[in-house]
Design a protein that fits this description.
The protein has four helices and six strands, in the order ββαββββααα. By secondary structure, it is α+β, with helices and mostly antiparallel strands. Strands 1-2 form a two-stranded antiparallel ribbon. It has a two-stranded parallel ribbon with strand order 3-4. Strands 5-6 form a two-stranded antiparallel sheet. A hairpin with a 2-residue loop joins β5 and β6.
């Protein structure tokens, strides 16, 4: 699983086969505007982000017990991962076939919580739009 937290306080998740730069960098380019400021940990696949026209790339080094450097941190995406683990643990395991659905549900719930939206109201709005377009 690969996750991004965008400045609009929206988490985006993507299931990946591996965590190589050749897999992750195209996803980042697709979801993150060029010239954006990025905050990551020191995971090696993120090494080439500045070369991809991202002008500011701040990194924290978890391996040296660094979790923030001034305003640069990755706490929200770490919070999302923790939320997913707790939520999915309630099911005592999730089948591989249904994992993506459960992950996207976690993404939806977390995004509603971050944007202070009521989940019921948001679902109702989505259903109204779906029925209108159906």
């Amino acid at each position: 699983m690969f996750g991004l937290l965008k400045r609009e306080w929206k988490v985006y998740t993507h299931i990946v086969d591996d965590v190589k730069a050749s897999t992750l960098l195209p996803i980042i380019r697709w979801k993150v505007g060029l010239g954006s400021t990025l905050n990551t940990d020191k995971f090696r696949p993120y090494d080439g982000l500045v070369d991809l026209w991202y002008k500011k790339h701040h990194r924290v080094n978890h391996w040296e017990n660094e979790f923030a450097r001034g305003k640069q941190h990755i706490n929200w995406i770490e919070s999302f991962r923790s939320y997913c683990k707790r939520r999915l643990a309630k099911f005592n395991g999730v089948s591989k076939e249904k994992f993506t659905l459960h992950l996207k549900e976690c993404e939806f719930r977390f995004n509603c919580w971050l944007s202070k939206e009521d989940i019921y109201t948001k679902c109702k709005k989505i259903l109204k739009e779906y029925v209108k377009n159906f």
